[in-house]
Amino acid sequence: MAKALELRVGAPGDALDRFEAAWNRAAEGRRVPSLAVLTLPELPALLKNLTPARWRLLERLRTVGPLSVYELARRLERDYKNVHTDVKRLVELGLVERRADARVAVGWDVVRCELRLAD
What we know:
By secondary structure, the protein is of the alpha/beta class. The protein has helices spanning 13-27, 43-49, 52-64, 69-76, 80-93; strands at residues 4-9, 37-40, 97-98, 104-105, 110-115. The strands form two sheets. Strands 2-1-5 form a three-stranded parallel β-sheet. The longest helix is centred in the first third of the chain and has 15 residues, at 13-27. The protein is globular and about 50 Å long.
């Protein structure tokens, strides 16, 4: 089974709703599915944090596996400082993980994105 991250645009209260639903399922003795979700407050925040350059970075890491930031910048043919900044932000968001050996990797097989139009 693929390890998936759901990327959503929505209110912070959405996370509380998911928590409450999981709590109720557990209290009823039902199975609580494992779910990894990253919620950003609005579409501009999503677009600011997941730029085309950062998406290519994620794709490259997923394809070739863990790399140092220097090697990743070399393979992407981008400036080290810019790649370092991108990696730092993607680590903060949970899209990239920094390993003990200083290499970075993508722990997800799939990133699903859900965008809801206002009600």
